[in-house]
Fold:
Amino acid sequence: MKSYITINEILKRKHFERTEVIAGEGGLNRNVKWVHVVEVINIKKLLNGDELVLTTGLGWKENQALFMSFLSQLIESQASGLCIEINTHTSTIPQDIIDVANEHQFPIILFHEEVPFVQITQDIHSLLINHQYQMITDLESYSQRLNRQLLEINHHEEILVFFQTFLDVQVVALFDNEIFCIPELPANERHILLERIQTNEQNGLNSIARQPVQVLGNQFAELVIISNDRELAEFDLLILDRTTTALAQHLLRVLYVEEKRRMEEAEWMTDWLNGHHSNVDIREHLTYVDPGLKLNGGVVCTCKLHLTDQSSILDKTYFKLHIRTIFEQQGFYVFPIEIRNHIIFILGNQRTRKTWKTRLSQAFIRFKTADFSEKLKLSSISFGVGKFVNHLSEIHISYKTAKETLLLQDMLTEKGKSYFYEDLHMYRIISLINKHSDLQEIVMEYLQPVIEYDQKYNGKLVETLKTYLACNGSKQETAKKLYVVRQTMYHRIEKLETLLGNDFMSSEKRLAIEFMLLAYDFLTIENHTQVLANEM
Structure:
C-alpha cells in the first residue's frame, strides 16, 4: 500500500545487521523514498525530503562545526536519517550532535565497519521500485474493480463502503445536505470527528486527507479519509483520488438521468399547456405522479422574474421553492415549468372551486409581505393568473389568458392593477382593440380637444373629467377630491362642455368617454414603458 519503506524496515536488511542507532530512535518510523551517498557539506539544495543519507564523514572529518551545519541542513530538508561509516574519516560522534538529533527525533545510525554503499543503495532502491510497482498494480486492480462497481450500484453510498473496505480507514463524505460516515459512528464520536475535520487536526500524524468531488466545474461534495493509527501514505491519496473521480462520474450519471427525466417532464408539461393532452392522458399522468391525487379544476399562474445583475440561479431556486410552498398551503397541487425568465405554475385545485380565487389572493399577500431583502435579489416579480377551468384538458385556455394578463400588468394603472384575468374587464377589450386597430386614433376622436387644451395651457381638464365622472357628476364632491374651490370647478366644467359638447354626461356618450379615458391611460403607460426600454 506504499511506495516507500521506513527506517525500521531498512534496519532489518542484510547490510544493517551490525548497525547502532545512537540518536533519534523516536524517528525510526520515518519514511524513506530514496537513498543518497553524500560526502559534501553543502547538501541542502540537493535534497527533496525523505532521503536516507549514507556518508563516511569526509566532508567534515573531525570539524564539529561543519558536522553541525551538515546535520542542520538534513533536518531542515526533512531528510529521513543519517548513516555514518565510523573510523574511515570520522571516529566519534560529539554529544552536541547526538543531543540535536534527539531533539528533532532525527535518526543517526552508525556502521562500525566498512560497508559497501553501492550494494546498500542497490538493495534499497530495488526494494523501493518493487514497492512502487506493487502499488501501481494494486491501484490498477482497485480502479478496475471500482469501474465494475459503477456499472451496478444504485447509490453513491455503495462506492463509499467499497472504498472504506479497501483502505480500512474512516471515510466521511460531506454533501451540502447530508453527511455519510463509514463505518457509522455514535453521535458523540461523530460530532468530535466532524470538528476534527473542520479544524483539519492531524493528531501529530498526516492522518487526514480530503479531496473535493467536482462535477461540471461545481463542487458537489468533499471526500475525507481519517486514520487514527497510521500516517496516510501516497497510496491512500491515490486511492482517494480514484474514488473521488468515480464518485463524480456516478453523480454526473445521476444528474444526467435526472435532467433527462426533467426534460421529458417539461416536454409533457409544455404539451399540456398547449392543449395536446386529453382528459384520459392527464388522468394517467396524475395517477403516475400521485395515485391518490384528485383535482377539482385548475388555473395557470405565470411569473416573470426581472433579474438584476446580482441575481443568481440560487435566487430563482429559492423563489420557486417559497412560492410553491405558499401555493400548496392554500390547497393547490403545483406543477412548475420554467421557460426562459418565466416560471409557469399549473395549479391543480384540491379544495372547493368557489374559494380558489380567495385562496390564491391570500397566497399573493403572503408572498408580498414576506421579507426577501436578504434572501431574494430579484428586482421585481410580475404575476398573471388566467381563467379558471373546470376540466384539466382545458388548461391551455387558462395558460393563454394568464399570458395575456401578465402582458397587461405593465400597462395597468395602480387603480386597475390585478393579477387575475377575470378582474381586468375593460382592459381586456382595450388590449384587443389596440391589437387590431388604431386605438390612439379612436381615443383622440373623443378626447383630442381636452388633451390639446391641457398641453397648451398646462391645464388639468383630463384629471377633472376623470374625477367628475367617478363622482357621478357631483360638482361639490369633485371639487372636494381635487382640492379646488367651487368657482374653479364650475369654470372647468363649462370648459369641458365647450370642448366635448353639452351632452358629454348623457349615458351613451359618458360610457364612451369613460372607456376612452381608460384607453388613454393604457396608451400613456405603454408609451412610457417603450421609452424606458429604448433607453436601456
In short: The first strand starts at residue 5 and ends at 6.
